[in-house]
Design goal:
nine-stranded mixed sheet, 11 strands, transcription regulation, about 20% strand, DNA-binding, alpha/beta, 2 domains
Length: about 300
């Protein structure tokens, strides 16, 4: 028995056809059949039932397939671990978490510079809430997090490094048909009472929504989401309003928030946020990882400047 025979069995179980499996494996049908027969003979178990309608796992074969898959998975894991030990610089993995919607500048920067600067690093990037990012950075589970923060949350990042990249203002976003889009005066608490809200999964937004309810009573919350497209649909089709940070909303991926109207609410709540990198002083970043953060920061600053946001 060898790894090659186990791989053949795995592929044959997927395709249920000697010919299709042989084509995938780039071997002859007769060669595949011989290898499977040798494996069955050595194990003393008939793994496949071969008929004119196809080749399918027997009951015994289904029981063995999980072990076969585990062995192949462990083999791959061993090979990857050995490759990293032998050439650590060639197998770097970098994990970034970011707060809602603002994926575009990170991906644009990484894709643009990958061949010239980063190859063969692996980037893992995903969207998370503020508390999760802080916890993951503090525990050194990730290398960096991109967060939005105002003065109310400074204690939450104590003993971590925060590098501000640009400023962002919190506004209320609404559709062009909403009455708020046509106000010729500052918005009031009475105006808010007549609105239906959608909220991103964001602790800051929850806190602001709660503070506004302290002042004007219960507000109608229709939807909570973490997807920019879903939020856009709620605003345009359900006529809801939502909180949004200017830079994040304008750099959202797959969604054109430029169709929405931004209503100033700075006279009602603390509207000023800083966007930047959160890192752990005990986490050592490689030169390539540091370069990735620098390039992404430069991209964000360019994007902020192009839409008139200070940095």
């Amino acid at each position: 028995m060898n790894f090659e025979q186990l791989l053949y069995a795995e592929v044959l179980a997927q395709h249920r056809s000697m010919q299709k499996a042989a084509d995938v494996l780039h071997i002859s049908k007769s060669g595949l059949s011989t290898a499977i027969a040798q494996l069955e003979s050595e194990l003393g178990v008939e793994i496949f039932d071969k008929s004119s309608s196809g080749t399918v796992l027997t009951d015994d074969g289904r029981q063995l397939l999980a072990s076969i898959s585990d062995i192949l998975r462990y083999k791959n894991g061993l090979e990857k671990a050995a490759a990293k030990i032998a050439n650590p610089s060639q197998h770097q993995k970098f994990t970034i978490h970011y707060m809602n919607t603002m994926l575009r500048p990170f991906i644009n920067s990484f894709v643009e510079n990958y061949d010239k600067k980063y190859r063969p690093i692996q980037l893992n990037i995903s969207c998370h809430e503020f508390e999760t990012i802080v916890s993951q950075v503090r525990d050194q589970a990730i290398e960096a997090g991109f967060i939005a923060i105002n003065n109310s949350k400074n204690d939450a990042i104590k003993h971590l490094n925060f590098t501000p990249i640009c400023d962002s203002k919190l506004v209320l976003l609404c559709g062009p048909e909403n009455d708020l889009a046509h106000l010729e005066r500052p918005i009031t608490l009475e105006d808010l009472k007549n609105q239906h809200f959608s909220i991103f999964n964001d602790q800051f937004h929850d806190d602001i929504f709660e503070r506004l309810q302290f002042q004007c009573g219960p507000l109608d919350l229709v939807l909570r989401v973490d997807d920019a497209w879903a939020m856009e649909q709620a605003i345009l089709r359900l006529n809801t309003v939502c909180f949004g940070r200017t830079l994040q909303s304008q750099l959202a991926s797959h969604t054109d928030f430029s169709k929405l109207v931004a209503v100033d609410i700075g006279h009602l709540i603390d509207e000023n946020f800083k966007l930047g990198w959160l890192t752990n002083p005990n986490t050592m970043l490689s030169p390539t990882m540091t370069l990735i953060l620098e390039d992404m920061s430069a991209q964000i600053k360019r994007d902020a400047q192009s839409i008139g946001i200070p940095h």
